[in-house]
Structure formats: C-alpha cells, structure tokens
C-alpha cells in the first residue's frame, strides 16, 4: 500500500491561521475568522470568496462550519 505524499492538499497550518487571523475589512473587521457567523460565510459562498489567501481561509472556514467542525479551531486560538 502506497504512503500518502507529503504535499497533500490539506495543510494543518491553515487551522492555526483560521483560529488567529482577523478579518481585515467589512462588517466584521477585526473579528477572528473562526468567530465569523455562518450566514456571513454563506454570503461569501454565494457571491464568491475574495481572491488570494483570505479567500482560501474563508472557503475553508465555510466548509468547517458547514460540517460542524468549528470545535477543532477553539483550542488553537492564541491568548
């Protein structure tokens, strides 16, 4: 059986970034991304996520919240 490659699509560092990066603009400017409400993420899902790293983070967070996995982020928040 083949071992999974190290360059898999999932990067666990993204979870740490989601738990500690603040929203840079908009209604929820200054909020930690992991604390953004699901309806706001749904709005981005329908309208399109912003380009670049922020878009990747928001799209990942949308999937995490959609699947009820946000509890994975809480222990990663730096005090």
Note down, in words, how this protein is organized.
By secondary structure, the protein is mainly alpha-helical. It has a domain at 35-79. It has helices at 13-20, 38-47, 52-66. Helix 2 (38-47) crosses helix 3 (52-66). Residues 1-8 have low confidence and may be disordered. Pfam families: QSregVF_b (PF12843). It comes from Sphingobacterium thermophilum.
Task: Describe how the helices and strands are arranged.
Layout lengths: L12 H8 L17 H10 L4 H15 L13
Protein name: DUF3820 family protein
Organism: Sphingobacterium thermophilum
Structural class of the secondary structure composition?
Answer: mainly alpha
Question: What is the end-to-end distance?
Answer: 42 Å
Number of strands: 0
What is the N-to-C succession of helices and strands?
HHH
Task: Report the helical percentage.
Answer: 40-55%
Rg is: 13 Å
Largest sheet: none
- Give the strand content: under 5%
Low-pLDDT residue spans: 1-8
**In one word, what is the shape?**
globular
Tally the helices: what do you get?
3
How would you state the average pLDDT, rounded?
A: 89
């Amino acid at each position: 059986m083949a071992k999974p490659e190290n360059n898999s699509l999932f990067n666990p560092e993204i979870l740490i970034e989601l738990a500690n990066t603040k929203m840079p603009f908009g209604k929820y400017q200054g909020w930690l991304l992991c604390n953004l409400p699901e309806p706001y993420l749904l709005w981005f899902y329908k309208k399109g996520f912003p380009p670049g790293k922020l878009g990747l983070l928001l799209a990942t967070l949308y999937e995490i919240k959609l699947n009820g996995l946000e509890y994975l982020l809480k222990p990663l928040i730096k005090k």
